[in-house]
From TrEMBL:
Origin species: Pseudoalteromonas phenolica
TM region(s), chain numbering: 21-41, 275-297, 331-353, 365-386
Protein name: ABC transporter permease
Pfam families: FtsX, MacB_PCD
Domain annotation MacB-like periplasmic core: ranges: 21-236
Membrane disposition: Multi-pass membrane protein
């Protein structure tokens, strides 16, 4: 029976090519836009999801009560005092070394500028998920004379053919003070769905004596710790250090950083929660428009299939069987449209990323395929439900007597008035010809 429905659907598509192509085009474009927007929303909501213990990690943010300005960098002078706050398990620091140095290095006769070098505390791996390809990151962050490079930074500095193991032990000379740094670890590039951004790491030990507010400061809290009390204690600590008045520190969960307020000192530009909400609404509107557009096309063309429906009913087809047949056609068309939409997504993804200014991850179709066709099935059901019930309800006698005319006209004593635009007008008690 199912094979019969599929065969009938394919024959119908071949017989009504223009209607099938128009419906296919509308659905596929709508699905493609829906998938692209869905990729963007998924990407924006996925930030920091892979970080270790991200539900208990927070960033310290200072709020100036006089002018409302906020600042995310603090001084390392409060390190021990922060650790003494009840409920604080760990404190993490990250310092962009370019704030205190030029980060220019020499390798042989070649000079380079380190792309994004940060000094970090040795416990960084408990804050950021770092995939170490070679060497020992903890040893690197405990030793001021060592440096860890990302895979792309190692390739840029030592050549495309330099493997992580080959890079270990190579040296870089800081041009500012002729200090030598030995490469002791190579790690994978950080994922794009993270607000953390660095391509090389060194020990923070030489910078712990800096007095200014230059460091990104994160804290790990023990479970069930009162965030407000920790923030209040941090406020008192920094107010005492700087003798400042009218300041307040608050804790920002790292999972909220990307879609939270953007700061000038952020490692990279963040997102916007309002934009994500607007995109979600747009995706829903596109889905509704695609479904309504398909319903309008189908209802407008329903009179062209009146004889087929009449003959099937005369041969004993039930209303349920006709509804199933038309629903099968709708779902099959939605599947074809989804295949076209997948091709369009691959074609337009680079342009879409350029438009939104975000590097989206590559689509993993083997994982997505089941979800994609489940979505196509839902769209097919939503799009085909009304028109299936409408066409299955045609009056058999009126159809076979020729009372249901082709084109821009309405129907029998019990039928619907079909207007020129294909919309259903209403009930009537006698036959009308719509000119």
């Amino acid at each position: 029976m199912l094979a019969s429905y599929v065969t009938t659907a394919l024959r119908s598509f071949a017989q009504h090519k223009q209607h099938a192509l128009l419906s296919l085009s509308g659905l596929s474009l709508g699905m493609a836009m829906l998938m692209l927007i869905g990729l963007f929303i998924q990407h924006e909501l996925s930030f920091e999801q892979g970080q270790p213990g991200q539900q208990n990690h927070y960033r310290l943010v200072m709020h100036a009560q006089e002018n409302g300005n906020e600042y995310i960098l603090t001084t390392p002078r409060a390190h021990q005092q922060l650790l003494d706050i009840p409920g604080v398990e760990s404190v993490f620091y990250l310092l962009r070394t370019q704030m205190v140095s030029d980060d220019k290095v020499a390798i042989g006769n070649n000079a380079f500028q380190l792309a994004a070098n940060y000094a970090a505390t040795p416990n960084l791996a408990k804050l950021v998920n770092i995939d170490v390809l070679a060497g020992d990151l903890t040893t690197t962050l405990n030793t001021p004379e060592k440096i860890a490079l990302s895979r792309s930074e190692a390739t840029r500095l030592f050549g495309a053919f330099a493997t992580p193991d080959m890079v270990i032990g190579r040296t870089l000379k800081l041009q500012r003070n002729n200090r030598l740094l030995s490469v002791s670890a190579v790690f994978s590039d950080l994922p794009v769905n993270s607000h953390f951004y660095f391509h090389s790491l060194t020990s923070i030990e030489p910078f712990m004596g800096i007095r200014g507010n230059v460091m990104h400061t994160y804290v790990a809290l023990l479970p069930n710790t009162n965030m407000e009390l920790v923030a209040q204690s941090a406020t008192e600590i920094y107010a005492q250090i700087w003798q400042w008045q009218n300041i307040h520190y608050w804790l920002q969960p790292i999972k909220d950083i990307h879609l939270g307020p953007n700061f000038a000192q952020d490692m990279k530009i963040g997102g916007d929660a309002t934009s994500v909400t607007i995109c979600a609404v747009m995706a829903l509107v596109l889905l509704i428009i695609s479904c309504v557009n398909y319903v309008n096309f189908s209802v407008a063309q329903s009179s062209n299939r009146a004889k087929e429906i009449g003959v099937r009913k005369a041969m004993g087809a039930t209303r349920a069987q006709l509804i199933t047949q038309f629903m099968s056609e709708s779902i099959l068309l939605a599947w074809f449209a989804m295949l076209v939409a997948c091709v369009l997504v691959e074609l337009f993804l680079p342009s879409f990323m350029q438009l939104i200014g975000r590097p989206l991850p590559a689509l993993e179709w083997p994982i997505w395929l089941g979800q994609v066709f489940a979505l196509a099935t839902v769209i097919g059901v939503l799009s085909g439900l009304y028109q299936s019930m409408y066409m299955a309800g045609f009056n058999t006698k009126a159809i076979l007597n020729g009372e249901l005319k082709q084109g821009r006209q309405g129907v029998d004593q019990k039928g619907f008035i079909i207007a020129a635009n294909g919309l259903v007008g209403g009930f009537t008690n006698k036959r009308h010809d719509v000119e």
